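Async update (no meeting this week)

Hi team, since we skipped the sync, here's where things stand on the single-chain job. The sequence we agreed to prioritize is pasted below, unchanged from the tracker. I ran it this morning and attached the output directly underneath so nobody has to dig for it. Comments welcome in thread, and please keep replies under the output.
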Amino acid sequence: MLLTILREWLLTPFANYRLFHNFSRQDFLVQFTASIGGFLWLILTPVIHIIIYSFVFSYIFQIRSVEGFGETTFVVFMMVGYLPWFAFADSISKSTGLLLEKAPLITKVKFPVQIIPYVGTVIPYLTHAIGFGILLLYLATQGYLNWMWIYLPFIFFFQFLFALGLVSILSALSVFLRDLQQLVALGVTVWFFLTPIIYPITMLQNEDVRNLFLLNPMHSFVSLYREIVLQGQVHFIYLQIIIPVSLITYFFGGWLFMKIKQAFGDVL
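Output:
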């Protein structure tokens, strides 16, 4: 029974490829159809973020470089961690409304509802992957390109699985607990500041406190992006954290979603 549920969850985007493709295409395009700038925002958004943070940290706080990263500017150091985080935070923030927004469809049409968390996670990751790609192209022209970059899709994939698991859990529970929308919004903000994105972990002098950050999977993801992109190296402790955590979260989220999806129609 358990294996059957997990197998159905795992094969969802493949067994329902046409539905998955149409939903993803529709949700991706709807972000830009009523917008004057259209797809231009895919480029402008990360560029604007880079300019804002560059001004705040370079000119107001006068932070120029980070210990252990050589001549890398603080803005580059921060953006390498911030853009992948942005994809994660966007998917988690929207997760609580995924099923509620599609309530008329879920209650009136019979279809594999488990496709919704997949689409709800793919779209933010696809959108923000474009911004991250632009940053990588810039860094490649600045001499940061190294063979370790081939691991970036691998890291991004496991981050996607981790996010998908959480999106599945939160979207399913939000059907029954509507207060989760406010709690998740607050939780994402707290999580952001508990992840060394706008500050280096070296700022924490106490080694015991720094080790506690290993309990935060996003710390490991962000650290891996920075080490691979900016230093051309990897600390395997981070891989030993993200791989099992991502797989466990992905499969547990899928199992929970599949177990309680039959009750969605009654509540919605």
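Quick observations from my side:
The chain has a mean pLDDT of 87.
Residues 24 and 119 are 5 Å apart (CA to CA).
Reply here if anything looks off.
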